[in-house]
Amino acid sequence: MASLHLLRRLALRLFFLSLAAVLTAYAQAAKLNVLLLVADDLNCDLGSYGHSRVQSPNIDRLAGRGVRFERAYCQFSLCSPSRSSFLTGRRPNVTQIRSNPRSGQFSTDYKPTPHFREFLPDTVTLPQLFRQQGYFVARVGKLYHYGVPGQIGTSGLDDLESWEYFVNPAGRDKAEQDKVFTLIPGSYGATLSWLASDGSDLEQTDGLSATAAISLLEQQHDKPFFLAVGFYRPHTPYVSPKKYFDLYPPDKIALPSLSADDRSRTPEAGYASAKQEQETMTDRQRREAIQAYWAATTFMDAQLGRVLSALDRLQLAANTVVVLLSDHGYHLYEHGLWQKMSLFENSARVPLIIAAPGAKGNGRLSRALVELVDLYPTLASLCGLTAPQYLEGTNLKPVLDDPTTNVKEAAFTQLRRGSDYDGYSIRTARWRYTLWDDGRRGEQLFDMEDDPRETRNLAADPKRAEVVESLKSQLRAYAQAQR
Ligand SMILES: [Ca+2]
User: Fold this and answer.
1) Measuring CA to CA, which of 135, 147, 420, 431 is 20 to 30 A from 153?
2) Residue 108: per-residue pLDDT
3) How far is the CA of 221 from the centre of ligand 1 (A)?
4) Is 164 buried (19+), middle (13-18) or exposed (0-12) by CB count in 10 A?
5) How far is the CA of 259 from the centre of ligand 1 (A)?
6) Which residues are placed with Cβ below 5 angstroms of ligand 1, an ion?
7) Which residues of the chain have pLDDT under 70?
């Protein structure tokens, strides 16, 4: 009898011990790491996004094991406004960051201005939330705004509250600036400029960034980590080793065709991002610029691939959420435009891939409309962190489990032209509608199903009056609500 009682107690004790072990393991497993990969000025010219020319094997590999978002949009098609938005989880009219910092302008605490802390001093940024909740949080390279290439190797427009540790690599591309071909002598980052560089991948800033990120992954941490790696390419100057240029011979690159509105620049506000020095480029130069951009993309993809391989080698992939995104889209002569700062699809649309361990939708694409402002609540939810109530995005976890799910009806992107006027654009499943200066400087409506290259502006078509009214009132409500 006594031994039976003892056995029963022993069995009970074993049961509770193993239950405790399972619960502890579950709690540890639930603490997912985050690897946030942010490319600068990267558009959707990528293999996994269906581009027939551009080689991006590593981003494609990530798409194979995560959910690839086909319709992801930035909230502002410029670096600092977009990054300030998705890293705070708030829209540009709330952060009040609607321009890049003007060089030489410093606030009283010697930060380049404008900085979102001037307007939202107590906001908790995405990385800061992870810091507060016990994560090791580190940054490599460009997460908040940096002037490229001028501020490479500095902290740029950083937010010190966001990081416990940071690295600011500066490579051969920074040192060899004088070899870069540019449309404006002495200017590299704001205009089109490029260089087929000598030397190896590892000497370039993005090569050094990947090396620094791998070293951080290799360190043993007693806490879960949130590692943000900000690549500088394919931002101008489009610098990469020569071998990447050889992949894209210019004479095999077809230039986009222009519509009648593109040629006449109607409405003018829609095309006001065009820069004078870009207007006189020869077709040969246009092809060379596209070659250099694609080369920089493939080079950046290779560095990103080194970080992903390290994650696999260190057996961290099963316990790490991996995200790839770009701060905004980018034109390569579509509509006769280059770079960003337009409200056409190429400038508003971004690549976005989220690979969350165990998500049922992994390996599939989603056509759900999503916005970069959704990143913050999504990562907080995936990692079981309590996010601030004021966040303006939507948790995408339901889409990661079922990519056919929709979580919103529309995505919004905005711009400010100088200090003069704003443009707002709404993207629904079928339409893109853009309102310039509340209509005083024109409006544009494109049927993205029938006319994905936005060649026919239907805003004045009487048959579409009802659609225009509905989309216009949604845009006006958006513009007003956020002030
Ligand atoms: Ca950018």
Assistant:
1) 135
2) 47
3) 31
4) middle
5) 27
6) 40-41, 79, 327
7) 1-30, 103-112, 483
Asked if residue 426 is part of any domain, the answer here is: no
Predicted local confidence at residue 2, as pLDDT: 53
Distance (Å) from CA 32 to ligand 1 centroid? 28
143 within a domain of the structure (yes/no): yes
* Backbone φ, ψ for residue 274 (5° rounding): -60, 135
Are 201 and 302 in contact by the 8 Å Cβ rule? The answer is: yes
Of the candidates 318, 140, 328, which has an alpha carbon nearest to the alpha carbon of residue 234? 328
Q: Hey, what are 464's tokens?
A: 């579409």
Local structure of residue 102 (DSSP, 8 states): P
Whether 232 contacts 144, CB under 8 Å: no
Tell me if 69 sits within 8 A of 310, measured CB to CB: no
Q: Is the peptide bond before 357 cis (omega within 30 degrees of 0)?
A: no
| Distance between Cα 360 and ligand 1 center (Å) | 32
What spacing in Å lies between the alpha carbon of 330 and ligand 1's midpoint? Answer: 9
16 C-alpha to center of ligand 1: Å?
A: 53
Supply the pLDDT for residue 16: 56
Q: Which domain holds residue 382?
A: 31-406
The per-residue pLDDT for 393 is 98
**Count: domains in the chain:** 1
Task: Count CB atoms within 10 A of the CB of residue 187.
Answer: 15
pLDDT value, residue 221? 74
Q: What is the Cα–Cα distance from 397 to 118, expressed in whole angstroms?
A: 32
Q: What is the pLDDT of residue 110?
A: 46
Q: Is 217 helix (H, G, I), strand (E, B) or coil?
A: helix
- The encoded tokens of residue 102 equal 């003007």
What is the DSSP code (8-state) at residue 136?
E
Residue-by-residue DSSP string for 260-275: HHHHHTSSGGGGTT--
Whether the Cβ atoms of residue 116 and residue 96 lie closer than 8 Å to each other: yes
Give the tokens for residue 345.
């699809």
Q: How far is the CA of 10 from the centre of ligand 1 (A)?
A: 62
Is residue 475 in some structural domain? no
CA of 213 to the centre of ligand 1 (A): 20
Least Cα distance to 361 among 330, 302, 405, 318 occurs for 405
For position 401, what pLDDT does the model report? Answer: 98
Q: Which residues contact residue 306 at a Cβ distance below 8 angstroms, ignoring those fewer than 6 apart?
A: 210, 211, 214
In a domain, residue 113? The reply is yes
Distances (CA, A) of 367 to 68, 402, 408, 428, 449: 9, 11, 11, 11, 13
CATH code: domain of residue 388: 3.40.720.10
